[in-house]
Amino acid sequence: MPTDKLPAHLFLEELGISYKRLTFPPSTEKGAANVSVALGYREDQMVKTLIFEAHTGERVLVMVGGSRNAISGLLKKAIGSRNIRMAPLDAVKETTGYAVGSVPPFHWQPDGFRSLIDEALMREDVLGVGAGVWGEEIIITPADLQRACSGIVVNLTERPEQT
């Protein structure tokens, strides 16, 4: 296991948040499903970190479990815009400092940057999040993830029951 700590590790330590550092072969094919298999976790415990862009130009971090997808209407409501899209690859790098596939969900956000956490993630015991380098994963509790990214917990993946 590498001994050099990444900025995401140092950030968690500065906050006094405990985490487990795991590695998987960098040759592992991209995607939460593949990371979950490599590390022995369920896919929904591996967090996808997605950057969305609103028509206003605001970019928002959206976190959902590996096998889930945000429901468009719920995501638009949470962001507060009917005109949203996934941020282009270069915009993700510009915003976060990281390439798609290795974006950690904390330490790079400026003040006022919104980070949305799907409430289904809060029901997991532990979560796996990217550490900023492909092949490095951080295992953290949902509460500590929320604290580290100042996350707003909202339902993004489960359709409300019709009454």
Describe the structure in your own words.
The protein has 163 residues and is of the alpha/beta class. The protein has a single domain (20-154), classed as YbaK protein (Alpha-Beta Complex), CATH 3.90.960. It is built from five helices and eight strands. It has helices spanning 7-15, 32-39, 72-79, 89-96, 142-149, and strands at residues 20-23, 47-54, 59-65, 84-86, 115-118, 127-130, 136-140, 152-154. The strands form two sheets. Strands 4-2-3-5-8 form a five-stranded mixed beta sheet. Strand 6 (127-130) and strand 7 (136-140) form a beta hairpin. The mean pLDDT is 95.
User: What is the ordering of alpha helices and beta strands?
Assistant: HEHEEHEHEEEHE
Record the strand order, biggest sheet.
4-2-3-5-8
CATH superfamily, by name, is YbaK/aminoacyl-tRNA synthetase-associated domain
- CATH class category label: Alpha Beta
- The count of β-strands is 8
CATH topology, by name, is YbaK protein
Average pLDDT figure = 95
Report the helical percentage.
Answer: 25-40%
Descriptive tags:
5 helices, alpha/beta, YbaK protein, three-stranded antiparallel β-sheet, 25% helix
What topology does this entry show?
Layout: H1 7-15, E1 20-23, H2 32-39, E2 47-54, E3 59-65, H3 72-79, E4 84-86, H4 89-96, E5 115-118, E6 127-130, E7 136-140, H5 142-149, E8 152-154
Parallel strand pairs: 3-5, 5-8
Antiparallel strand pairs: 1-7, 2-3, 2-4, 6-7
